[in-house]
Amino acid sequence: MVSEHQIIALVERFEHKLNLLRNAYTDAQNRIEELEVENLALGEKLREKDTEFKELRKKHVNSEKNTPKSKDVGIIVKDNLFKTDTNAELKQQLDEYIRELERCIAHLSSLS
User: Fold this and answer.
1) pLDDT tens profile 92-101
2) In total, how many domains does the chain have?
3) CA 15 to CA 67: how far, in whole Å?
4) Is the domain of 76 the same as that of 103?
5) Which site in 26, 31, 43, 88 is 20 to 30 Å from 102, CA atoms measured?
6) Cα distances (Å, whole numbers) of residue 18 to 28, 29, 48, 89, 102
7) What separation in angstroms does the CA of 15 have from each of 4, 7, 18, 24, 64?
8) How far is the C-alpha of 91 from the C-alpha of 84, rounded, in Å?
């Protein structure tokens, strides 16, 4: 037969385990709330980055429309090279192209 002391000891162990389970449940609920808040914040960041990406893509597409195609640049260079007769003139023409490229790069850098 089970004594009264044994029954009391079993009830106390049961209450102790029940309290541990309640604490674990409360901790889990708190962690879920924290993760939900973090998830909302990350979702908002993702939307912001997506919007930023779309804007940058539009700027990129617009800048591509405003720049001449590489084959057009090749024709311009080819046509202008026939006009240069000496190495000095060729170097001067190349320096002018480099300065123009630097101006274009500076302009594109200022757009972003």
Assistant:
1) 888 888 888 8
2) 2
3) 77
4) yes
5) 88
6) 15, 16, 45, 92, 74
7) 16, 12, 5, 14, 72
8) 9
d(CA 79, CA 58): 33
The total number of residues written for the chain in this structure: 112
- Asked if residues 94 and 85 have their Cβ atoms less than 8 Å apart, the reply is no
Range of the domain at 28: 1-66
> 104 or 71: whose pLDDT is higher?
104
Q: Do both 84 and 105 map to the same domain?
A: yes
| C-beta separation of 30 from 83 below 8 A | no
Torsion sign, CA atoms 19, 20, 24, 30? positive
What is the C-alpha to C-alpha distance for residues 98 and 48, in angstroms, rounded to an integer?
A: 38
Q: How far apart are CA 9 and CA 3, in angstroms?
A: 10
Q: Is the distance from CB of 59 to CB of 111 less than 8 angstroms?
A: yes
Q: 56: which residues sit within 8 A by CB, 6+ positions away?
A: 112
Query: What average pLDDT does the segment 29-40 reach?
Result: 96
> Using an 8 Å Cβ cutoff, are 112 and 56 in contact?
yes
